[in-house]
Amino acid sequence: MPKKHGYLLELQVSFKESEYQNILREQVREPEQLYRVFKSLEDETQEKLIGVYVSRQLDDPFYRLLSLGSDNAALCDYRYLFQLAYLTQAHAFALIHNHPSGDPSPSDADKSVMKEIQDQCDVLGFQFLDFMIIGRDGYWSLYEDLGKLYQIAEAFREHHSGENNEQSGVV
């Protein structure tokens, strides 16, 4: 009987110079930082999806192009997105995406992807920090949008806190 040889998959990691200016070198604290770094996506004619992975302290950022799409769509491979999160030992990540049309408003497909990724993060234990869409002269941020919703909900809760104390903590 011939002897069987086992094979081990070898992972090679290489680094290359970033195509984006002012690449993140510090703690990621707000969407504006990501926008400044990836603002050049507003000039792209194809949709791109970029993942930015960070540690528990929101530092040591690592980014990777996850998808290069057409003029109105880019596929999001969830397996690849989370594979990179595991390989980089990230605690959290943000996704940056562009709309060549110039309108940074999220499409129905964008909303569906955001929900699916959040559901997967809940299962896998990652923190989904933001989903940013860059358009001409601006951006839309899920984090900022939810922040506004959170502030409205908190104001509503404070205003109605004396009316019914049994329903606290639910929006």
CA-CA gap between termini: 68 Å
Contiguous helical run count: 4
> What kind of sheet is the major sheet?
5 strands, mixed
Known CATH architecture: 3-Layer(aba) Sandwich
Strand order of the largest sheet: 2-1-3-4-5
Assign the CATH topology.
Answer: Cytidine Deaminase, domain 2
Tell me the name of the CATH class.
Alpha Beta
* Residue fraction in strands: 15-25%
The gross shape turns out to be: globular
How many β-strands, per DSSP? 5
Quick structural overview:
The protein has 171 residues and is an alpha+beta fold. The chain is built from 4 helices and 5 strands; from the N terminus they run αββαβαββα. A 5-stranded mixed sheet has the order 2-1-3-4-5, with helices on both faces.
Core attributes:
171 residues, 5 strands, 20% strand, disordered C terminus
What does this structure look like?
The chain has 4 helices and 5 strands, in the order αββαβαββα. Mean pLDDT is 78; it is low at 163-171. It has 171 residues and is α+β, with helices and mostly antiparallel strands.
Topology, element by element:
Layout: H1 31-38, E1 48-54, E2 62-68, H2 78-87, E3 92-98, H3 108-124, E4 127-135, E5 138-141, H4 142-159
Parallel strand pairs: 3-4
Antiparallel strand pairs: 1-2, 1-3, 4-5
